[in-house]
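User: Please predict the structure of the protein below. I'd like the answer in structure-token form so I can feed it into my own downstream comparison script.

Assistant: Understood. Taking the following sequence of 398 residues as input:
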Amino acid sequence: MTDAPSPDAPAVVLGAGYAGLRVAHEIRRRSHKEIPVVLVDRSPVHVLRTQLYEIGTIADSERTQRKFAVPLEELVRRDGITLRQGTVQSIDLDARQVDLGTERLAYRSLAVCLGNVVAFYGVPGADQHTFQVYRYSGAMQLAEAMRELEARSPEMPPGRRPRVLVIGGGSTGTEVAAEIATADWRRITRRDARPPEVILVCGALPFLAGFSAGLVRHARAMLYEAGVVLHEGANVREVQPEKVVLDTGTEFGFDVAVWAAGIQAPEFVRALPVPHGKGGRIKVNAFLQVDGRPGVFGVGDVVEFEDPETHMIVPSTAQAALAEAPVAAANLVADWFGRPLKPFQYRERGVVVALGVGRGVAKFSRVTIWGSPARLLKTLVEKEYATATEHGRKPPGL
């Protein structure tokens, strides 16, 4: 049985990514700052996760820190949001408490906006021998490894180029592969670096599965021009220190391997006694609320929302998270004051995929654009994500 909420407990928002920051700001704004909000995150900075594929820029250390990570204190101070740094260990939905390891935080209402973690699907060696870009620390580690690899490349035997293997043919893997292939490593390393050989292992799923045929066609062409080799139709069976083995027996040696093959909900989220969807994501209803758990809402990558009209699952994107956030916040405020809730309706405005430095492909309405105009659009959308998240503004759209 769920305990009665304490009237003195705050609304707790877990996760200070795009979704969490927007929810926290919206709760304060929509309640005229009557509802106290505690924002919990493991990091003291807000990371612009939609830009972590920019490995060349991250490797260029003089341009890095402020571009990708903004101190959270700067973003929450003006709205009177209490910031609590800590790593969530578990959530007790019955007792209405969040365990941070060092303390137990009571809540009256809860918004779970924690995002996802990398999923290795039990592939031996994948967690040991690959880099990931789902977190800022992982992107930094990959960027450092690439900088060191490229700095050593002039000493490689004649004809030998650094080989980078990117595993996962979705948007993340595609963007990382293209960025690594087209980054100016000579300028970054200040040495006569050799351009890397980049292989994108797409797996059994089609390349950029779920995207429109026109977008996929242009993406293939631009990856080819960038020198990225696509390998399709086979999943990775094992990752060894310098070699990947596919389930067909094909082997690829590598100097650096990047895992971008999938994400899942954090382990403690998967263990919650609530309905779950793919990857352990929390299923939410039309109001972005967890069924049977009054006052508990979910937003962003950590939830699975099925559109009641189309029965399609809303994608795990920043665009979707920023669309969900104000609705979840409005419903949390309405629930707090005993008012009716309003359903969430998602309308995707378009998609953009970066395909190397200064290049991209975008699809909106019935129009596909590619090349530098698409990359400019990608840059503008990413800037809008940042400002919308920081200031609680309307989310961007194409």
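That's the full token string. Confidence is low (pLDDT under 50) at residues 392-398.
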